[in-house]
């Protein structure tokens, strides 16, 4: 009897605690209750827009969100190393869907450098481990290459076209028609006006017939045509069975996937000044390089 | 409490069927025994096999693991004949900076390492330069002849 009562008490306590926890650790995206909002406003100021935008611009500075694997000292050292690397090479802002040209020193090739042009299909992991993958179709052959973003062998990263896509990952391009991932190797860079919003490319790709690499119909992709015409009855039923439309209301799931707003602003305010200084230096360097090229040389 | 025997037997039946019908793990895309490959050179036999829609099957991989990696020598069954080839593009996951292809590509060679064709249609990875040089032994097969007929490197 006593045990039962204890259990009930525990559960009640847990419930109260859990409410409290959700309330306390609301992630950056979730909306607060009105009462909570007024309280929050009194306690803390809202961070500046430049700071909150940095999570899209520099996603690799945020640590991975699994609490069991985190190491605050290591994260701090990594951030310092990343900034040090950024003083050596200009790592521009780019997103999944942008077209990049990457020049890399390659001991295997004859000229000792190698370059690859492709569409960025994926950005993975964080910190010094952050990776990205480029995809292109050359001579009717689909090719994907994965690079470490902070690899010292990288000589130059150029953004030929800065844009976003409708999805976070474009791995499905492997099963789409080749025209959607074919990019001209000698493409010239398109320059965007500074300070404007990043354009979103809303192309909807058509898929090849079966077999596919993954079950794309279950992933809720926005940049893919309606896949029902490819599916048989069994696969349609399975799609409905495995669908979980309640996931977007799961606050804890989102909390486990994200870094809280307070922590984000702490991290970015730490690097804000230095990264802006580094970017300014790279801009000046680029300007100086342009000036030397345009100068006519008079001999005699 | 154990479930009754009838339930257990039905469970067993379900697992047996499920194990036969579909994969429970992710696909590795490895080159193993009986994997179909794509011939990417212009050798007569390779071109005809690909045109007929009967791509070659791997019947042996010349390494300890029996799983083909990039630059490995394989024996293929192509149009009723046994031919040797070198893997020049892999579908499976690769290390950073090594390209990953949409198909498993092979270039046919003879016993001395001389390619049967005179041209390779698709790009081949630059890392093959080092790998094939290491595999070449003096007085043995010379695999580096393959690099000379490549049209493009990535």
Automatic annotation (TrEMBL), chain A:
GO molecular function terms attached to this record: structural constituent of ribosome
Keyword terms of this UniProt record: Mitochondrion, Ribonucleoprotein, Ribosomal protein, Transit peptide
Pfam families for the chain: Ribosomal_L19
Gene3D superfamilies: 2.30.30.790
GO process terms (BP): translation
Cell location: Mitochondrion
GO CC, alphabetical: mitochondrial large ribosomal subunit
InterPro entries: Ribosomal_bL19, Ribosomal_bL19_sf, Translation_prot_SH3-like_sf
Broad class of where this protein is predominantly found: mitochondrion
rRNA-binding recorded as keyword: no
Family according to the record: Belongs to the bacterial ribosomal protein bL19 family.
Protein name (record): Large ribosomal subunit protein bL19m
Organism: Chironomus riparius
From TrEMBL, chain B:
GO cellular component, one term: ribonucleoprotein complex
GO biological process, any: translation
Keyword Transmembrane helix listed: no
Entry-linked Pfam families: Ribosomal_L14 (PF00238)
Highest taxon, organism lineage: Eukaryota
Keyword Cell membrane: no
Location in or out of the cell: Mitochondrion
Gene Ontology MF, one: structural constituent of ribosome
Record keywords: Mitochondrion, Ribonucleoprotein, Ribosomal protein, Transit peptide
HAMAP family per the UniProt record, alphabetical: Ribosomal_uL14 (MF_01367)
Family: Belongs to the universal ribosomal protein uL14 family.
Protein name per Swiss-Prot or TrEMBL: Large ribosomal subunit protein uL14m
Species per Swiss-Prot/TrEMBL record: Chironomus riparius
């Amino acid at each position: 009897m006593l045990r039962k009562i204890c259990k009930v008490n525990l559960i009640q306590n847990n419930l109260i605690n859990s409410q409290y926890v959700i309330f306390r650790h609301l992630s950056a995206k979730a909306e607060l209750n009105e009462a909570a909002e007024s309280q929050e406003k009194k306690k803390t100021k809202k961070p500046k827009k430049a700071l909150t935008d940095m999570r899209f611009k520099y996603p690799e500075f945020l640590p991975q969100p699994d609490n069991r694997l985190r190491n605050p000292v290591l994260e701090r050292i990594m951030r310092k190393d990343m900034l040090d690397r950024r003083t050596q090479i200009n790592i521009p802002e780019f997103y999944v869907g942008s077209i990049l040209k990457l020049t890399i020193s390659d001991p295997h090739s004859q000229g000792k450098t190698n370059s690859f042009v492709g569409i960025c299909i994926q950005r993975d992991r964080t910190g010094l481990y952050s990776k990205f993958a480029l995809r292109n179709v050359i001579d009717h052959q689909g090719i994907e290459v994965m690079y470490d973003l902070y690899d010292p062998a990288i000589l130059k990263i150029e953004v030929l076209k800065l844009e976003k896509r409708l999805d976070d990952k474009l791995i499905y391009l492997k099963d789409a028609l080749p025209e959607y991932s074919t990019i001209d190797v000698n493409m010239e860079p398109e320059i965007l006006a500074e300070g404007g919003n990043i354009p979103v490319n809303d192309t909807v790709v058509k898929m090849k017939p079966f077999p596919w690499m993954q079950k794309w119909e279950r992933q809720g992709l926005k940049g893919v045509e309606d896949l029902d015409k490819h599916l048989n009855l069994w696969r349609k039923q399975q799609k409905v069975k495995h669908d979980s439309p309640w996931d977007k209301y799961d606050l804890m799931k989102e909390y486990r996937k994200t870094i809280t707003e307070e922590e984000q602003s702490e991290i970015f305010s730490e690097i804000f000044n230095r990264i802006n200084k580094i970017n300014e230096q790279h801009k000046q360097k680029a300007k100086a390089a342009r000036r030397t090229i345009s100068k006519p040389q008079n001999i005699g | 409490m154990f479930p009754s025997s009838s339930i257990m037997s039905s469970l067993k039946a379900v697992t047996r069927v499920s194990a036969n019908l579909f994969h429970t793990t992710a696909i590795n895309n490895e080159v193993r025994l009986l994997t179909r490959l794509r011939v990417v050179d212009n050798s007569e036999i390779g071109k005809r096999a690909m045109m007929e829609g009967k791509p070659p099957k791997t019947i042996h991989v010349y390494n300890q693991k029996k799983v083909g990696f990039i630059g490995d020598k394989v024996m293929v069954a192509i149009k009723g004949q046994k031919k040797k080839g070198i893997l020049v593009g892999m579908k499976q996951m690769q290390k950073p900076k090594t390209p990953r292809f949409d198909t498993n590509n092979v270039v046919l060679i003879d016993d001395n390492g001389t390619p049967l064709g005179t041209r390779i249609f698709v790009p081949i990875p630059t890392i093959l330069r080092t790998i094939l040089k290491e595999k070449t032994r003096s007085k043995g097969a010379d695999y580096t002849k393959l690099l000379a007929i490549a049209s493009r490197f990535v």
